[in-house]
Structures are given as C-alpha cells and as structure tokens.
C-alpha cells in the first residue's frame, strides 16, 4: 500500500525533478544540498513504492521524474504506456522538431504518426497532351519513393536515439498523393492510368516501433501499385495490425453514349499487372509473425459507387490470365494463415480459401472472417446470373496491347477534347442495367466449396461472414432488354438497388448474427444463417458447410433459411455492412 502522505511525495517528486530533457532544474534557486538530500532519499525507496508513486503522476510530471534516479526512470518507463495519446503529422517543415521531441523517453507516448505524400504539379502542355508519358511515370515513382525513404529515415533516427528500452508502439498512416497535374487538362487527366511504384523497397530500414500500418487512398486520385502494401509490411517486424483503403477509379462507370464511353478511368492492363505484382510480393516467410489483424478494403465508399453501377450484360476483363488461378487471391490466403482476424472487400476467386494444388492448409489462430466479394470474379466470369439463368455463360475477355493506355496523345484524344470543350459534361449519362440476383452455380459453387473447406480447417473460428452486394433494375436499359424480364415479380420488401446475398456462421454461445430471425442468443449449437433468397446449395456444398466447427463444437447445428422481415427474398445490405464497413 502507498503511504497516506503519497500526495506530498508526488508533489515533491514532480517539484524537485528536472523539467526538460536538458535537466534544467528549478531547485537551483534553492540550496543544492536540499536537492541532493531529496534525491538521496528517493534512492532509498523500494522500487515497488516508487512505481506506485509514478502511477499517480500526470504525463508531464511522469516525464519529469524520469531524470530523478535510475529507480524513477524504470518506474516512469513502466507507466508511460498509459499516456500513448500523442498524434503527430510529419511534414518536411516539422521533421527536425519531431526528431528532437521523440528521440528519447517521449517515444513511448507516441500513439499515431501521419504522413501525407504528394506529387509536384506537372504542367500539361501540347507536348504531353492528355496522356501520361514514360518520363512522367518515372518522375512520380522517384518522387514517391524519396518521400517514403525520408519518412523511414526520420522514424529510424528517432528509434535509434530513443534506444531499445524506449521502443515505441505507434500507428503509422500513409496517405496517397494526388496524381499531380495542373493547367487546362482534359478528362483523361482526371484519372491516373498508370500505377505509382515504390522503388528499391529492400533498402528501407526496419522500424521496430510500428505496431499498426494504414495505407489510405480513399480521397486520392493517384493509383498505388498493390505490392507497395507488402513491401512496407516486410519492414515492420513487430506489426500487429494492417489496414488498407484503396481502389479508387478502378471501375469505369457504364455510360450510355460516346464520347463518355471513351474516357476510361482505368485500363485493364495495369490493373491486372498490379494484382499479379501483389502475388509475386508475398511469400510465407516475409510476413511478420506478429501480424494479427488485417483489414483490406479495395471497395471503399467512393469505389463501390462505381463498382456497383456496371451493366450486367457487359463483358468483363480476365485479370487472371496467363495464370490459371488468381495470384492476387492466392497471396491474400498466404497472408491470412497466421492471423486472428481478417476483414476483406475485394474481387477474389476460390484460391482465396483453398490452394490450387489441393493441399490442406490450416489457420490455427483465425477467429473472425468477414469477407465481401464482388459479383464479378477475377477471371471475368460472373458469380451471379438472372432469375432464369440469363448471362450464365458470360466469360471474361483476354487482354492485349489495347488494354494499356497510350503514352502519347492520339488523334482521337484531340477530337474528344473538342467535344468536351463544346458540350461540357452533359454527355455523362449513366447506362445501368441490373438483373444478376441469382447464384451462378458453375462459378459460385467452387467458391463456396473452397470457403467451407477452409472454415472447417480453422479450429479457433468464432465468426464468419461471406456476402456480395447485388442490384436489380431492368427499367433503365433499352426497351427490348427490360421487356425480357417482365416475368419476374420481386417479392415484397424488395430493395432493388440495395440488395445482398450472403451467409453467417457463429460458434455456440457467441450470440446472434442478425436482428431479424436472430436464432438463439445463447445457443449451445453452431448456427448458420442463410440470407440467400430462394436459392439452396446442392447436397455436396451443404454438407461442407455443415462440417464447419463440427470437430471442435459437436454435431449440434441450427440453420436459418427464412427471414422475419424479407421472408425468402433477398435482404438489404444493411444486414452485412456492419461487419464490412464502407470506410
């Protein structure tokens, strides 16, 4: 127990202690002998008592006591974690101030470091027109790389000055740059067509104090190479949490008329290449073993608005070829092996869950799996079809040289620029036609089977959510298109532009996944909620789902097919977005 005069002791410690890193002591106004006697008395206190004293101090007083004695230094370091509240945005102007402030004991107070990247304005003139040339790409790569190198150098300097005993544990957020052009640019310049790369990432120093990393691309028109995420992760040996919010401008809206159709937001070639590059970046050995939680969001709010509004008769690119299965999905699976929780919003295939070679993986620690998948698979095939099988045979088209943006302006660019100048943006009329609300068993079936097999190999699994956003509107297309769906009568409480298809699994005793038809709050059996409309899995797939958690929790299983509010109809997305938030 702390003595009854602890308030007095706390006052004395904070008063007699130095008040800055330079140890300028106000007690110089008093006889130095008093100060010496006080410090000597403090050295006689048991370490336990000193630790209790320090537990009562404010952050500033705790910092001051650090210089009283070795015992107080040890106690102050132990208590510093309570005050991890400092947030610091590093800029070119305040970099040295950051180094001076946190190169020592204060590093333990640091909770969040933020860093904005930027591109210098690049003049758009008649020479490069509305296209991004090779020189401009190289300059962007170089500029971005230099900024990341400077950031790492700054953070490493602070770490080295603070020393091993004062190692911090903070969150690092890196914001993506704008794509950097100025002047009278055309609509081509509103969207970056080439990816920005991090050059020579292996030269970056390891940072021991980074416990969480976030890459935020929500409000940037630049497009970062996907593998930057992994190249950074490998430099943080103690990383526990990883977040990524990106994907902007990757889905060109479906426009009705030219010239809007010709203003492509992203070409298929660079998009495929960055997914394959991500696949090449991950190996089972280069991911920190400390990583526990991952949230990767390639469909943040602004992205999903466009990825949702695609014409359901339109052919989609094959982003997998020349590989047989999606390297991007495969790498995400490798990333997940040692996690405790994964939240994912992405365009993925069945190798996200199960290896192509049919080997049997395990996820020994994974407890929570929340996945939103896009209705188009990476190969360009659709996971969903019309109510009577419309669009079932749609396949992805192969990429060629035309799948990459030109490096120089074309004659067509000049014509389109004139159209924009004369007509403004009035031509940007959306042309959406949505009818795919029923599972395409030929494509979705293997995806579901792989998920079920993987979940059965997660011995610690407590919650799993798998879902896809859907839409229905056949009135906005051509007359003959809409008439072909006159037979379909939507069920009551049908939210045509805000639908979801999905399922949830909970272990016994966890609770209820949904507010409607909630099952049993303290159920002693495993529970599966099927929010899948009138569709039912075939016996083989159904049996695989019934195996999830069976070995760990026994035979008892309850399944729910109807919904209190929507009956056997498709439910609202609100059911699922709680687990996979848009931002």
UniProtKB/TrEMBL annotation:
InterPro entries: F-box-like_dom_sf, F-box_dom. GO terms for cellular component: SCF ubiquitin ligase complex. It comes from the Eukaryota. Residues 39-86 form the F-box domain. This is F-box domain-containing protein.
């Amino acid at each position: 127990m702390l003595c009854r005069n602890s308030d007095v002791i706390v006052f004395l410690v904070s008063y007699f202690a130095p008040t800055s890193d330079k140890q300028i002591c106000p007690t110089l106004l008093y006889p130095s002998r008093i100060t010496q006697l006080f410090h000597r008395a403090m050295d006689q206190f048991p370490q336990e008592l000193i630790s209790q004293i320090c537990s009562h101090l404010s952050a500033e007083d705790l910092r001051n006591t650090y210089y009283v004695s070795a015992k107080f230094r040890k106690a102050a370091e132990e208590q510093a974690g309570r005050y991890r509240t400092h947030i610091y945005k590093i800029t070119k102007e305040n970099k040295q101030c950051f180094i001076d402030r946190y190169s020592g004991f204060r590093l333990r107070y640091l909770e969040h470091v933020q860093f904005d990247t930027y591109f210098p304005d690049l003049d758009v003139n008649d020479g490069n027109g509305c296209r991004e040339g090779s020189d401009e790409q190289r300059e962007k790569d170089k500029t971005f790389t230099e900024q990341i190198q400077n950031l790492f150098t700054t953070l490493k300097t602070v770490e080295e000055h603070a020393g091993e005993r004062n190692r911090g544990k903070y969150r690092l957020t890196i914001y993506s740059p704008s794509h950097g052009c100025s002047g009278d640019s055309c609509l081509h310049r509103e969207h970056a067509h080439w990816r920005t790369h991090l050059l020579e990432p292996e030269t970056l120093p390891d940072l021991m104090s980074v416990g969480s990393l976030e890459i935020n691309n929500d409000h940037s028109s630049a497009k970062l190479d996907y593998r930057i995420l992994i190249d950074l992760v490998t430099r943080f040996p103690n990383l526990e949490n990883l977040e990524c919010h990106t994907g902007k401008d990757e889905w060109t809206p479906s426009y009705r008329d030219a010239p809007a159709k010709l203003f492509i937001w992203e070409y298929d070639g660079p998009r495929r290449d960055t997914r394959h590059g991500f696949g090449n970046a991950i190996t089972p050995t280069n991911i920190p073993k400390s990583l526990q939680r991952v949230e990767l969001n390639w469909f943040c709010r602004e992205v999903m608005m466009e990825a949702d509004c695609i014409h359901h008769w339109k052919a989609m690119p094959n982003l997998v070829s020349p590989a047989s299965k999606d390297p991007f999905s495969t790498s995400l699976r490798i990333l997940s092996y040692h996690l405790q929780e994964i939240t994912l919003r992405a365009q993925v295939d069945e190798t996200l869950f199960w290896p192509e070679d049919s080997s049997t993986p395990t996820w020994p620690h994974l407890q929570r799996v929340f996945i939103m998948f896009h209705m188009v698979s990476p190969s360009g095939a659709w996971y969903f079809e019309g109510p009577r099988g419309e669009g079932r045979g749609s396949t992805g088209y192969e990429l060629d040289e035309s799948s990459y943006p030109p490096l120089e302006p074309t004659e067509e660019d000049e014509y389109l620029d004139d159209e924009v100048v004369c007509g403004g943006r009035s031509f940007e009329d959306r042309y959406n036609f949505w009818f795919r609300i029923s599972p395409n068993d030929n494509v979705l079936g293997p995806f579901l089977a792989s998920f079920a097999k993987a979940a059965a190999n997660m011995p610690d699994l407590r919650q799993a959510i798998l879902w896809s956003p859907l839409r229905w509107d056949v009135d906005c297309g051509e007359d003959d298109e809409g008439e072909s769906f006159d037979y379909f009568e939507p069920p009551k409480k049908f939210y045509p532009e805000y639908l979801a298809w999905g399922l949830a699994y909970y272990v016994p005793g966890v609770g209820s996944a949904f507010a409607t038809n909630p099952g049993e709050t303290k159920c002693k059996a495993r529970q599966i909620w099927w929010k899948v409309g009138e569709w039912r899995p075939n016996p083989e797939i159904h049996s695989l789902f019934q195996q999830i958690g069976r070995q760990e929790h026994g035979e008892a299983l309850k399944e729910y097919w109807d919904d209190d509010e929507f009956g056997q109809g498709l439910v609202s997305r609100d059911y699922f977005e709680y687990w996979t938030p848009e931002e």
